[in-house]
Amino acid sequence: MTNRKRIYREEAVYFVTSTTKDRKPYFSDTDLAEILQEQFYHYEDAYDYSIHAYAIMPDHYHLLLTVEGEENISQIIHAINSYSATEINKNLDNKPKEKVWQGDPWTEVIRNEDMFRQKLAYVLLNPWREGLVDRPQDSYEFSNLVRWKEDEGEEFLQDLFSQYGRAWE
């Protein structure tokens, strides 16, 4: 367990990574990935945050979001992880319940536009890096890359990935 000090700022943008306990690949199961994805959007209005980007990988997720309301990032991630763990355990008929999430999630305050773009590229490229899609700009069911493609266009993504994607590795 880490003793990282969390910084809270009003209307801050955060990069979040949360990992499953023992890196168990819960989200290789489409039903379980859908449960988590639904929680991202379920709490968006209730906790007053805006999702910029997300990717759900087999054993972790990344979120890039702006917290606009009174709740802090810890409360938001706790709500998402707690309820998704309950639903995952129900779905798997786990009795007793199994621990789904590993310790404290990683949260990082985005300090400037350059850092935002770097984290955006990281999140959107993650499914490709993990071999879940064939090409960097391919849509992945558990990411919102398609929204960026529709809103900003293919050229935007190509520029973003070229500039911040470590040469697409």
Notes on the protein architecture:
With 169 residues, the chain is an alpha+beta fold. It is 43% helix and 17% strand. The chain has a 4-stranded antiparallel β-sheet with strand order 2-3-1-4. β2 and β3 form a beta hairpin. α3 packs across α5 and α4 crosses α5. It is globular, with a radius of gyration of 16 Å.
Structure in a nutshell:
The protein has 169 residues and is of the alpha+beta class. Helices cover 43% and strands 17% of the residues.
Helix count from the secondary structure assignment: 5
Structural class per helix/strand content?
alpha+beta
Per DSSP E runs of 2 or more residues, the count of β-strands stands at 4
Helix content: 40-55%
Q: Note the beta-strand portion.
A: 15-25%
Topology:
Blueprint: E1 13-19, H1 30-46, E2 49-57, E3 60-67, H2 73-91, E4 106-109, H3 113-129, H4 145-152, H5 154-164
Antiparallel strand pairs: 1-3, 1-4, 2-3
Helix pairs in contact: 1-2, 3-5, 4-5
Core attributes:
169 residues; alpha+beta; 5 helices
